[in-house]
Design goal:
Helix content is about 30%, strand content about 25%. It is α+β, with helices and mostly antiparallel strands and about 140 residues long. Strand 4 (about 80-90) and strand 5 form a beta hairpin. The longest helix is centred in the middle third of the chain and has 23 residues, at about 50-70.
Length: about 140
C-alpha cells in the first residue's frame, strides 16, 4: 500500500500496560492514564485509544474541510466535526472499529455542505487510512 511521497511530519507515542496502563508522546512530559471503558468491563477511570482516535479524526477531518473549502472559495470557518468511534467484536473473533462523522457547516446550503464533506473525505489522511478498513458514516447536519 503506498504511503506519502515524502513525510512532512512524524511523531511517536509510547505505551506501557496496554488499555490499563499509561501512554505519552515523544518530547512531552504529560502521561495519560489509560483504562478500559466501563461498557467493556473496565473501570472507565482513564482515557482509551478510541477517544484519542476520535479526537484525531475529528480534528483532521475539520482541517480537510477547511482545506477543500479554501480551494473552492467557500467559507467553512464555522464548521464543526463530531467523530464517534465504536468498537466491538468482529466475525473473526477479534475486535473492529467503526466511525461516524457528523458535520455541520453554518452558512452553506445542504448541497454545498454535502459536496464539501465528500471532497474532504477524499483528502483527509484519516479517511484515506481507514477507507476499505472500517465503516465510516458521513452525516451532514
Amino acid at each position: 500500500m503506498p504511503g506519502p511521497a515524502s513525510v512532512a511530519y512524524s511523531t511517536s507515542a509510547h505505551a506501557t500496560g496496554g488499555r490499563d496502563g499509561k501512554v505519552h508522546l515523544d518530547n512531552s512530559p504529560v502521561w495519560f492514564a489509560m483504562a478500559i471503558p466501563k461498557d467493556m468491563g473496565g473501570s472507565g477511570l482513564g482515557s482509551n485509544p478510541e477517544q484519542f482516535f476520535a479526537m484525531g479524526y475529528a480534528s483532521c477531518f475539520n482541517s480537510a474541510i477547511l482545506f477543500v473549502a479554501g480551494q473552492k472559495k467557500l467559507d467553512a470557518s464555522k464548521a464543526k466535526v463530531t467523530c464517534e468511534i465504536g468498537i466491538g467484536r468482529n466475525d473473526a473473533g477479534g475486535f473492529a472499529l467503526q466511525a461516524k462523522l457528523t458535520v455541520s457547516i453554518p452558512g452553506l446550503d445542504a448541497a454545498q455542505a454535502r459536496d464539501l464533506v465528500e471532497a474532504a473525505h477524499q483528502v483527509c489522511p484519516y479517511s484515506n487510512a481507514t477507507r476499505g478498513q472500517m465503516p465510516v458514516e458521513l452525516v451532514v447536519a
